[in-house]
Amino acid sequence: MPVIPRPGKIIAIHLNYVSRADQRGRRPAAPSYFFKPSSSVGVSGGTVERPAGTELLAFEGEIALVIGAPARRVGIADAWSHVASVTAANDLGLYDLRANDKGSNVRSKGGDGYTPLGPGLIDASHVDPAALRVRAWVNGELRQDDSTSGLLFPLPRLIADLSQHFTLETGDVILTGTPAGSSVIVPGDVVEIEVDAPDAEGAPTSGRLATTVTQGDVPFDAALGSLPAVDDLQRSEAWGSREAAGLPPAPAASPASAASPASASPRTGDSLGTGRSGENPPVSGESPVPAGARMLSPELRAKLEAAPTASLSSQLRKRGLRSCFIDGVHANLPGSRIVGPARTLRFIPAREDLFAAHGGGYNAQKRTFDAVAEGEVVVIEARGDCGAGTLGDILALRAKTRGAAGVVTDGAVRDFAAVAEMGLPVFSKGPHPSVLGRLHVPWESDVTIACGGAAVQPGDIIVGDGDGVLVIPPGIAEEVADAALAQEEEDAWVAEQVADGNALEGLFPMNAEWRAAYDARERS
């Protein structure tokens, strides 16, 4: 008999481990879920069938929570007290049916035996929900090894979140996500999953949950519903990578698609929760452009690094763009300059309940600094409020380590001297010792924000120097840079004439006579 004979509900989260999110190239701003039927529960030592005509059955080692006391609208602080037990789970799925149900996973995850649990139960009251470990082996080879310290959304948050929508009843099971390492299994493979608390007294463990894959011989009936279908996308995600699936590397993105945030397709679901005909809509806060996709060509970067913001601002104004200046920010390093595409982060005003739900754990602030790509600029909306820090030395070090070009915030910076000492250019309103929770809740990333009175979209080009910081729409960046450099050359010539004793009248700006002299100089 299974350890939980017949759960009333089995609720699974699509994506919850940093390692898995990085493997998938997307990080959701909030948890999303799907249901599995109670008939999918299996036992340790049992079998699971790969249906006839399919190829992509995948295992997912997970930590399962068993509800012990009904939970309805419980807070995060009280949520864990509603969990009776922790055990191992294998959230099996069939990628061949991934696209058929548009993210619901009814068929791809709902097969008989697709949720084996056990073999033992760990008393939840004796373990720290932030210190649980899950491991998976295939034919004795370790494939997954991660802990709840690497979750996007802590376990108590999942319980509190779900309980605000419906009652979690005694015996319900919550599957809390799988780390990187999930892959395809074939008939004859034996998968083992173990959950334990290695740092708790007695190091309690679920024991190893063993499942053997068998081959089915009854095909699906085309007259009744859609048939299994696979393509290279399904194969690469089922196996974990194109290389593991035996596929050639994906073609490089074109410069046009790499520069356009609208060209990407971020999703909140895990690999079986999405598909070409089964994708979920984008959720606000999730990155519309994957890390590394927003890139400046070396040639354009060099032009923008050579062009002063004063000249760039003039050229933007000539093109009708008068609201592209981020007001009130100054560089922590005199003489520093930043150039790069924007990766945005938005803070909202502090409110205790919202900070409890969004301020802790792997919040939007940490996700942003973990995702910033080489050459990008983190731009933070802090509503111009400099009464608390928007980043400190640890986050600055993370940005520098990842190769960020710098940070711009219309708020304050903690550990100001330490940040300056590490050499990361930061444009801010100055220092403040308080942590962000005093004033801010890290709310969402890679969305359009307002920073210092300027609208900033992900992928906008940020240029900063001693005169301030500008936001340049990427579509006109090359044109503006070329015009600004031409203006610099012209201004340098005018300065020579002034130094020679010529009056400003007619020279600055140039009248027809001086213009002719300048043009003749260029021809000569």
UniProtKB/TrEMBL annotation:
Residues 253-266 have a biased composition (Low complexity). SUPFAM superfamilies: FAH, RraA-like. Residues 9-213 form the Fumarylacetoacetase-like C-terminal domain. Residues 238-292 are annotated as: Disordered. The keyword Hydrolase does not apply. Transmembrane segments: none annotated. It comes from the Bacteria. Pfam families: FAA_hydrolase, RraA-like. Keywords: Metal-binding. InterPro entries: Fumarylacetoacetase-like_C, Fumarylacetoacetase_C_sf, RraA/RraA-like, RraA/RraA-like_sf. This is Fumarylacetoacetase-like C-terminal domain-containing protein. It comes from Microbacterium soli. The lineage of its organism: Bacteria, Bacillati, Actinomycetota, Actinomycetes, Micrococcales.
